[in-house]
Amino acid sequence: MHSQDPLIKYKEYHKNSTNIAIHQACVPLILATAYAAFLTPNLALALNVFYSLNYLLFDVFSQKSINCIGYLQVIYAVSIVQRNLLSQQVNIIIHLLSWALQIYGHKVHEKNSPAFLDNLYDSFLFAPYFTFLETFYPDTMRQIQDPTQTQTQTQTQPKYITIKKINNFNKNTKNIIYFAGLFQKADKHYAKIADQLPEFNHIFVNVFFENGDNYNDTLIKIYEELNPKAQGVSKQEQQQEDQQQQEDQQQEDQQQEDQQQQEDQQQQQQTECIIGFSFGGSLAKQYKEIIFDKEKCYTKCILISPGGFKSNTFCEKFITTISQPLYKLYNNSKWYMISNYPTYQNHHNLTINDYLIHSTHDQVHNPDLSIYDPTFINSIKITLNHVQHKDMLPIIQKQKIIQQLIQNDYNVNEVKKKSLTSTLSKLLFGGHFYPYHIGLWLSVSTYNLYSFIANQYSQYSQYSPYYFFKGFVFASTVWSFTEYAFHRFILHKFFGKHHNKHHDYPNKLSIIHTPMLLVVLNWFAYYFLFQKFLNPQEMTSYCIFFPLNYLAFEYIHLLSHSYVGRNNIILNAKQYHKLHHLTPNTNYSFVTPFWDFYFGTLSPNYKTQPEEILFGYIPFYSFLIHKIQNQSNSNSKDNSE
To answer: How far is residue 179's CA from residue 158's CA, in Å, rounded to a whole number?
Structure first.
């Protein structure tokens, strides 16, 4: 087990700017030439993967560690170039020269020995990450505590970020105090909640943490900063005791002192409620106890998916299993906190004036409520369904749950919640276009393209460009008819409730797409149908282009509601679809007017020429040659909507 954070130890050996610059240049070269000169390609790849995983785990999947993976891949790519363009001898010379320069930097500029002479293990593991941070995150490296600092200098460093008044601070109004998790940037969501409650001061507290820090002193400092008379009360009480010992004290003065004490006590009780999300729930509970010790009153505390409570979820069991060995390996502050999950910083149960907002689908923090009396729990809890941990604050802010809870005098029965759908339901029935849709259909198309090419060059294959083109025409024709029929007969009739939302809110881009369930069912139906009369060559080509036609349709529909450029094809499609929204029983197609023309649903306001219809079953052919009438007027109208 390490006795110190590896980066802090490494920083001890690298303080001189010249030596740091030498390392920034030489460490990547040492790693790249080691890959190229001393390791086989497979071993080089394995070491590259090892470094990537190591830094992700060390910094607990922070943005810095994720970006470092890109840095490592550049080094790995350079090593591949060096392996192919340079001889092994040249790579070895570059490798040795880089080591020599580093030793020079330590001896001449740093006036010490290289770190690897004292701790080869840490140097091997963390030298690339150290140079990455020095290059791309120099502020982070400057913030790393220097172990050679005096105790006085260390004590002057702030233990918490300056308290931010989200709204203009008013001493005559009560405070709502917010605590966030350690790995969330909750201040943006808290700021939106603050906008919903303008009658209060809103104070966001974000606390640094250290190994073994119990936070109590930090929270007391925050309390004293927010309640400047908190320290003065004890002094005043002492003065009153001294005055009572004086025999010549007048009764009127005593009454004035008592009245002043009551006013001071009243001014102390400035906190309307405390709100804690995730790990911030543990800090909120601690802060509530501090207020009780100081003011002898119970402050209301709203806990949102709070840390500090046993939950018995799979996530909790997994984290508690892996965190202890990872903390022993890395010995940094983040893994110290995680190793004490989930009860870190909290040893209190839910009590009077606590209000719990939790989700049945939260696998990170979801307190086990079976240990409490059901009557008590039902009076303090608000349960959300289908909400993951990271989405709790956005959903709560959007549904104004905190605002309702405070304005309804903390009566949870009067808080109104909108029903939420599960992620699976959104994926299958919703109008969202997730990245996995694109990945799924591109994979289908790519696989069949590979299959077609591989078979084309086989010895006995009948695959040819003719079948490739034939599959393109067939798939394009089938899809252009399918999206017309789906839109007209399925979406407008059987899925009218879903589709009408799109017509009511045409610019809401999250609900404009076809439900995924319909697309998947359509794919399988066509696949088994066409297999019966298409030969393998035609079927493979069809499977290349049908998914691409679907993705093109979704993309052009998206652009028809958001595009502001000058591309004629997209502008024609946008104008064509706009007429459908103006007259819903016309222009059902998205990629061609061909089917609307032949089935009599073409809008009379969209003028077509015979040549546009001739090959119009091919998507975008008509829009490619169509000339926009009064283009400037159309653009101005579209942009104004």
So the answer is: 17
CB 47 within 8 A of CB 35: yes
- In this structure, the strands spanning 381-384 and 300-304 are unpaired
User: How large is the average pLDDT for residues 140-166?
Assistant: 50
**Rounded Cα distance, 607 and 626, in Å:** 9
In sequence order, which residues have a C-beta less than 8 Å from that of residue 157 and are 6 or more positions away?
145
State how far the Cα of 95 lies from the Cα of 80, in Å rounded to an integer. 15
Number of Cβ within 10 Å of residue 431's Cβ equals 19
Contact call for residues 352 and 288 (beta carbons, < 8 A): no
Residue 36 confidence (pLDDT): 95
Residue 113 CA to its chain's centroid (Å)? 42
Instruction: Give 144 or 267, the one with higher predicted confidence.
Output: 144
Range picked from 20-34, 50-64, 223-237, 259-273 for highest mean pLDDT? 20-34
pLDDT above 70 for 238: no
Tell me the C-alpha distance between 634 and 300, whole Å.
57
Q: How far is CA 127 from CA 120, 124, 238, 340, in A?
A: 10, 6, 58, 29
Buried b (16+ CB within 10 A) or exposed e, 103-131: eebbeebbebebbbeebeebbebbbbbbb
Q: How far apart are CA 4 and CA 209, in angstroms?
A: 15
Angstrom distance (rounded) from CA 351 to CA 355: 9
81: Cβ contacts below 8 Å, ≥ 6 apart = none
Which pairs count as long-range contacts for 265-271, CB under 8 Å and 24+ apart, including other chains? 265/233, 265/295, 267/229, 268/227, 268/229, 268/230, 268/233, 268/294, 268/295, 269/295, 269/297, 270/174, 270/175, 270/226, 270/227, 271/174, 271/175, 271/176, 271/177, 271/226, 271/299
**Sheet of strand 201-205: strand arrangement:** 164-165, 201-205, 175-179, 271-277, 300-304, 354-359, 381-384
E strand residue ranges, 86-227: 164-165, 175-179, 201-205
pLDDT band at 231 (very low <50, low <70, confident <90, very high): low
Rounded Cα gap, residues 488 and 492, in angstroms: 6
Quote the tokens at residue 601.
Answer: 């649903």
Tokens of 77: 């790519």
Rounded average pLDDT over 485-505 = 86
List C-alpha distances in Å: 90 to 22, 36, 76: 20, 10, 17
DSSP-assigned letters across all residues of 265-290: HHHH--EEEEEEETTHHHHHHHHHHH
DSSP structural state of residue 318: H
Whether the pLDDT of residue 633 is over 50: the answer is no
**DSSP assigned state of 490:** I
Region of poorest pLDDT, from 160-174, 196-210, 234-248, 497-511: 234-248
Structure tokens at 85: 């363009």
Nearest to 99 by CA among 27, 20, 9, 35: 27
CB-based contact 119:64 (threshold 8 Å): no
Written as six digits, the tokens of 391 are: 């989405």
Percent of the chain with pLDDT over 70: 81
111 φ/ψ sector (left φ>0, alpha ψ -120 to 50, else beta):
left
Q: What is the pLDDT of residues 455-477, one digit of tens each?
A: 876 655 677 888 899 999 999 99
181/307 Cα distance (integer angstroms): 9
Distance set, CA 309 to CA 217, 335, 366, 371 (Å): 22, 18, 8, 11
